[in-house]
């Protein structure tokens, strides 16, 4: 199984998830979507699979700094536009397991999927 982690290099949660994988000797690729961005097709596929709500990080500083109008009436299309324009609004990490993805880092979920 080829693993790819999507996130931001300097994110504490991403660092914990990376350490979890490394401590278990699991190889993975890393895609820094703040540095490299994220393509619309991939993000739309994630939204189709997972829904936009789990992917949109409303707790982060980037979302909190938005104009109030941008925070209102969010639907699928608006969420995708916001995340494409501001990739740091994508909850992290997103761990691509090939056939499915995990959003966020919870050691018990990683253990169930990879242990």
Main attributes of the structure:
46% helix; alpha+beta; 7 helices; 115 residues
Q: What's a quick, concise take on this entry?
A:
With 115 residues, the protein is of the alpha+beta class. The chain has helices at residues 12-23, 40-50, 52-55, 61-64, 68-71, 76-85, 107-114; strands at 3-7, 28-32, 94-96, 101-103.
Q: Which spans of ≥5 residues are poorly predicted at pLDDT below 50? A: none
How is the biggest beta sheet arranged? 4 strands, mixed
Beginning-to-end CA distance, first to last residue: 13 Å
Tell me the number of helical segments per DSSP (H or I, 4 or more residues long): 7
Secondary-structure-based class equals alpha+beta
Number of strands: 4
How would you spell out the order of helices and strands? Answer: EHEHHHHHEEH
Large-scale geometry:
globular
* Mean pLDDT figure: 94
Helix coverage percent of residues? 40-55%
Q: What is the strand arrangement across the widest sheet?
A: 2-1-3-4
In percent, how much strand structure appears in the residues?
Answer: 5-15%
Report on this structure.
By secondary structure, this protein is of the alpha+beta class. It has helices at residues 12-23, 40-50, 52-55, 61-64, 68-71, 76-85, 107-114; strands spanning 3-7, 28-32, 94-96, 101-103. A four-stranded mixed beta sheet has the order 2-1-3-4, sandwiched between helices. It is globular and about 45 Å long. The model has no long low-confidence stretch (mean pLDDT 94).
Please give the structural blueprint:
Layout (H helix, E strand, L loop, with lengths): L2 E5 L4 H12 L4 E5 L7 H11 L1 H4 L5 H4 L3 H4 L4 H10 L8 E3 L4 E3 L3 H8 L1
Parallel strand pairs: 1-2
Antiparallel strand pairs: 1-3, 3-4
Helix pairs in contact: 2-6
